[in-house]
Every structure is written in C-alpha cells, then in structure tokens.
Amino acid sequence: MNMTAVQTRALAEICQTFFPAEEGWPSSSEMGVPEALAAALPDPALTGRSEPLLQLLDLWNSRLHSLFTVARLVPFSGLPHDARTRMLLDWADSALATRRGAFQALRKAVGYLYVMLPGKNGAPSPVWSKFGFPGPLGAQRNGASRPLRVTIPDRDTDLTADVCVIGSGAGGGTAAAVLAAAGKDVIVLEAGGYYDDADFDGAELAGFTRLYLEQGFAATANHSVGLLAGECVGGGTVVNYCTSFRTPDEIRREWAATGIPWFASEEYSRSLDAVCARLSVNRDYNRVSAREEVMRRGLTSLGWHCDAMPRNVIGCDQGQVCGYCGYGCPIGAKQSTAKTFLLDAQNSGARILAETRAARVRIDAGAVTAVEARTKSGHRVTVRCKAAVVACGAIHTPALLLRSGLRNEHIGKHLHLHPVSNVCGVFDQEIRPWEGTMQAIYSDQHTRIDGNYGVKYETTSLQPVIAAAVLPWRTPSQYRALLGKLPHTSAIGVLARDRDSGSVKVDRTGWPVTQYALSKFDAAHIRAGFIGAARILEAAGARLIYSPHAKFCSYQPGVRGTLDSFTWEMDAAGWGAGQVALFSFHIMGTARLGASAASSVTNPHGECWEARNLHVMDGSSFPSASGVNPMISIAAIAHRNAGVLAAKS
Ligand SMILES: Cc1cc2nc3c(=O)[nH]c(=O)nc-3n(C[C@H](O)[C@H](O)[C@H](O)COP(=O)(O)OP(=O)(O)OC[C@H]3O[C@@H](n4cnc5c(N)ncnc54)[C@H](O)[C@@H]3O)c2cc1C
Q: What is the 545 CA–ligand 1 centroid distance (Å)?
C-alpha cells in the first residue's frame, strides 16, 4: 500500500522501538517488519474503507503528541530510545480504551511479523534461532493430489442452480453435502482459495496469509479481542484444532427452551451422530505432548477433572508435525469439510467456486432469486437459484444479510466469542511447546462457576505467533527474555462461555465492523480461570507464571510473590479492553435461530423471517454460546436444517 513519507517514517520508528537490534537479536528493520506490515494493510484506495493505523501514523510524529505523552517538544523520531519506549507505554497504560486498543494493535502486528517473517531469501529467521524454533517443517506430502475440483471463474459468469451455498466451512460444507445427496443442483461459493496437503508447509506466514480471515489480523473494532477464523475452501475446519465436542445436554435443553424443541430431540442426536461419523470423531489419537503433560500433571496433582479430547482425525501423527496443525494438516489426517462433506457434495454433483465472494443475495417479491458475487480478480458471478444457504461464519453472514437489504433488528446482534487467553508457565525442563498433538486433553473443572457459565481449560501449540499473541511488551529486553524462554514454556488456555454479547454492523462499504466488550459477569469467569490456570501450572512445578495482561503480572512460586499477589497484580492491571489480551476462535450467534421475528433472525429451520428460501446454517445460528468448541454443533445444525430444506421442494 502507498503510504506518505511521514507515515512510512513513523511506522519504521515504531517498529524499531518495539524491536531494536540488541544482544544478538535482529532489529525490526533487519527483519523487514515495517515493509511487511505496510504490505499487509488493506489499501483504502481499493477498499473505500479508512485505515485507522494510517491516521495514527499521521499523528504519531507530531511534536504536540510528544509534548502530551513524554513532555518533550520533539517528534517521536527525534526522541532517544527510552523516551520512545515511554511513549508506547503511555498508550499501553492509557485511561482511554481507544489508545490502549491502538497499542495492542501495534504490539500484535509488529510482534507477529517479527517472529513470523523468515530470514533473508527464505532462510530460517535469525529470531527463531534465538529460541531454538526449527521453523516450518516444509510440505510433507509434495505432489499429493487435490481431491476437490474447484473452479475460479476467469470471466464474468452466469450460472443456475437449485441452491447456492455461500461459504464452505463447518456449516456450508455440511449443508452442501446434505442438499446434493438429496438430488439438489448445488453451487458452493467460497471467498477464500483452495489449498490442500501439498500446500501445507507449516509456515506461519503462508498459513495466515492464505488460510485466515484478514490474514490473521482480524479483531474487534477496539482491538480488545483478536478474531481468528478460516478463509479458504473448508473454512475454519481446515485450520482448526480438531477438538470435536458434541453439543452438551444442558446446552441442548437451554436452546430447546428458546423455542426450538428439536435441539432436545432424537432428531438432533441423529444429526450429531451423522456428522461425528462422517468426520471420524474418535479418541484414538490422543498421545499427550510435553506441553500438555504439564497440564495433566497439574490437574492430577490438584485432583481436578481431566479427560481425553474427542478429535476428528485419521492417522494423526501426534508428534512434531501436529504442532503445525493450525496452518493446515500437512499429512491429511484432519477431517476438515474439504476432506469430507465437500467431497461428498462434489461426488453428488455439486460445483465449488473458490476465490468468489458473495456481495448480496437478490430478493424479489420476498423470495431469493439469485446470488451476486465477485471473484478476487474482479469478475462478476451471478448464480440464479431457488434457495440460498448463507454460511459465511458469524462475522460475514450478518454483513451479507444486511447488504442484501434485510432489516430484522437481531441481525448482527448476540455476538458470542468464547473469549480465550493463555496463562503461561516456564519450567526447568525443555518442552518445545510448538510440537505434539494439538489438543489431546481438557478439563471441565470450572465450567459451571455460575449455572452453565464458566471456563474450560485447553491448551494450544505455542508456535511463535501464538506465543507472541499474549506476550506482554514493556521493554524490548523484557519481551525477548520471555520469548527466549519459549522452549521451556507451556500455557493453559482459559476459554469462557460468554453470557453477554457484542455485535456486528456494516460500514458504509458493507464490510463488517465487530463490537465487543467483556461484561463484568464474563470477566469474573476469565479471572477465575486465570487463577485456576495459575494453580494448575504451579502444581505442575512452574518456576515463573505470567498472565496475558498489558502490564506484566507474574510470580515465581516459592521465590517471588504468591498466587494472591499475582491475583492482586492482575486486578490492578485490569480486565477491560486493551488491558488483557483476549482472542476468539469461536464466533457465534449473529443470525440466531428462534421462535419468532421478535427474538431471532431465522425460524427454527434456519429460514430468515424476512425472505423465503433464504437460510442461515453456520455459527451465526446458535441461540447463545455453545460452551464447547463449536464445530460439531455447527455441522449438526446444518445437517438437520439442510435436511429440512431438501425435503421442502
Ligand atoms: C485456529 C482455529 C482453531 C479452532 N479450533 C477448533 C476446534 O478444535 N474445535 C472446534 O469445534 N472449533 C474450532 N474452531 C472454530 C471452528 O473452526 C469454527 O467455529 C467453525 O469452522 C465455524 O463454522 P462456520 O460454518 O460458522 O464458518 P467457517 O468455518 O468460518 O466458514 C465460513 C466460510 O465462509 C467464507 N465466506 C465468508 N464470507 C463469504 C462471502 N461473502 N462469500 C463467500 N464465502 C464467504 C469464508 O471464507 C469461510 O471459508 C477453531 C477456529 C480457528 C480459527
């Protein structure tokens, strides 16, 4: 993207302040961070959307800004390094949530690129060698054939189908298979590209760029929650961690009570059975990695709940390559929709178009008549159809409905995120937390803190970006000291079932804007979960425990501080926006099923109250947060409601 000289200079200076060259660590500029960050920013000239970072960069180098932050009438670029650091911290600790959000956006963007970019000419990064990370393992199945015949239209195209399914993830992929098996002529439109085993080399940069929504940089408008979702053929099921929980009975009862009785019925159980069978959910590949051995040890010594995770894998290696699962399974073990339901759909005659983003659903006389889309290279695609299934994930589904002219007041509301973060522990022994089975075990010890609300404990592979996501930055050397300990670090993920919610609206270009604020009720559960995670790590023998707060909150059991002092530090650091790094891997609820238009976007079968034959079948459909990792529930809802649609005409 073209930036002005002032913006380019400010960006380079900010990157250098985060990561100057010191003690053998390369600087941000040596790693090419400013250029990579500029290249990753969407160009306002092309998108029509303003880019907040550019406005920040315009202001950053002004003398007035320095005067207000570090009492010096000198632009940022003229300040000594310690004054620049203070200026960044002034934003990190600001009383204003917008400033804290801006700091967090910078910390993540600069930090991610610093640890993710390869070295010169594709050589291993000199940053990785500072903490012994081997880098990507490379493709494991070079030349493996791609099972799907995917088309990318190379000219303006008009097509006709019975049903156009928009989005190919957990919901869309499943719906396409059910509809095609019932004899419907199905076209699937997918905004992302098609990648398979031979493409998955484990590189974080390639993984995020090719497979993730907004290349992994998506976040709520105030940057308080990072949003992770798939954007590729297969959607989130290609990059997800294979955890395959059925919808718990208590959540089924809760959802049934909102006016959707089938959630509590045998019919829904059969859909859960069917998707678990097709996705090969099992507990046969649950070898516990060194990273999770820590969690198991801590849980066992506390006498807390610990169980084996149900996972949708066949032939999972459970070793070194498994840690790279979030960038696509390089050995084809993960049973994503690209390997299962989309293949079934194709075998029943469905056509799949990739790199083709639906712009709007055309509705005439109250019913769907067509879907209008554009390819990445700008070709117009129109699919005339009798019905459309919107399955773009819970951020883009409400945006598409709004762009299509729907006005139901619940569209985009009730956004649930299962806010999650890591509490980290550093151990004497080497762990190499970027390796091993992705999620082999979990704990439900604190899932019922208040009724059906509480937290789950799960772990994730600490690839450098995932580790950097929660690393507090106070000075370059403090940050690097923690990063240097990564081989000895494990983390307990604390995942909250959120009772309260945010929203998705669209800006004037029709692009989604996500708002979310952690309520006091939900923050109390995150807090309880962080304390629980610290107890697990301490019981497992951690020497240093720290939280993902913007301020550095930590203790060293038996040496410095206690769980009580850690808790006090976390409370003082705060639980508000930008004070604690939170993420969402589970985006839900923005076009919910319900009993009437007064309470929901669709009827219990997923058909929009406002338009005939316009259906929603994805994470947006949830009446509230599922409390468990949602893939199986999404697929089962799509399975059940696509069956109803198929039987209709
Ligand atoms: C890193 C990661 C790990 C996860 N781990 C787990 C796990 O272990 N277990 C679990 O249960 N869940 C997990 N999840 C969550 C799970 O993958 C998602 O909840 C699920 O995939 C969502 O399904 P969906 O159908 O709602 O949307 P998605 O699967 O996100 O699919 C939506 C698709 O629609 C496409 N799309 C969007 N807009 C348009 C448009 N306008 N036109 C055409 N196409 C469009 C997108 O590109 C995307 O491919 C994880 C998610 C992530 C990101």
A: 32
